[in-house]
Structure formats: C-alpha cells, structure tokens
Amino acid sequence: MLIYLMALDTEEERIKFVRLYEEYRNRMHYTASILLKSEIEAEDIVHDTFLTLIDYLDRIDEKDSVGTWNYIVTILKNKCYNFLKRNKRIELTEDEEVFEQPVEMYNLLENQLIKEEAEEFLNTLIKGLKYPYREVIYLQYHNKLNSRQIAELLRTSPANVRKISSRAREQLKKGMQKKGYTCEYGF
Domain RNA polymerase sigma-70 region: where (predicted)? Predict the structure, then answer.
C-alpha cells in the first residue's frame, strides 16, 4: 500500500485511495481470479489496476458506489483481457463469438457481485427497521408465513399485518432506491 500512497500528491487523495483500496480490493481480486483462473496473476492485475486508478482518482465519485465499482471493474476487465491476449490464452479471430462469450461471462459475474452487494445492503436496511416492521418482514420472507399466521404470532389482525408489511416494503424500497439499487426483491 505504501507504494500507492507515495504516488499520490495530497492527503485528500491518499485518504480517498485508502478507502477505495479497502472497499474494493477483495472484489477486484475475486473478479480477476475468476477471469484469469490464477491467484498470482490476479494479484498482479489488481496491483496494476490500482496503479492505473491513481492517475484517474479525480474521476471517481465515492458517493456513487455502483458507478465506482463499474468504473473500477471496467479497468480491471480490460487489463485482464490484455493480459490474456498477450499470453495468447484467448485466440482472437474475426469471429465475434469467441470474444462475446467471455464478455457475457464477465457481465454475469459483475451482475452477480452487484446483486450480492444489493442483498447485503437490503439485509442492513431490514435490520434497521423498527418493531413491528422488521418482525413482519422477517416472518413473511424468511419464515414464509402468511398474514394470518403472522397475525396469530403478533396478536393482531391479518389486515394489520398486511398494512405493516406494505409500509415496511415501502421503507425498504425507498432505502434501496436512495442507494441507487433497483428493487427486484419482490417488494
């Protein structure tokens, strides 16, 4: 990390870089490992990507985590492609199908990582809900109970459970949208 920090001019850049490094290095390494099928080569590519990010640090908006990840993973994937081409692991031909298959695989991987991040954030939002919202959502989605069963447990009416569930889902939806996620989680 010291090598990276020495290349930065201001303390503000160093702080920003440290935050990016700590937040994204594991995801970058995981992505590169999948693409390259080698832990050692993945480490080299992640290192090279961080060196590149130093030059473009001013283009990264930390408040937009999805946009930041997309920017970083684009640089990372390009470096992986170039590495594979240099080492002739990908046979480039005029047939676009050869090149499209890896792109589709990488897009699926990226979508999976974004989905996992969104689910983790959703869990955080659920934990932050107040009583009885958290309990109703938990019983409804985790335990797969219907309104009548939840009403019996919470000693209220099924209509009240549906209203609580609706309000809780609305809170979760707003929280997800505020963070920039689309709501594909059944609410």
Answer: 20-89
Given this structure, which CATH class describes domain 1-90? mainly alpha
Surface-to-core class of residue 22, CB atoms within 10 Å of its CB (0-12 exposed, 13-18 middle, 19+ buried): exposed
Count CA atoms closer than 13 A to 19's CA, side-chain side: 14
pLDDT string in tens for the chain (187-residue length): 555 556 666 888 888 888 888 888 999 998 888 888 888 999 999 999 988 888 878 878 777 777 788 888 888 988 888 888 888 654 444 444 444 445 566 566 667 777 778 888 888 899 999 989 999 998 898 888 899 999 988 889 999 999 999 999 999 999 888 887 776 555 5
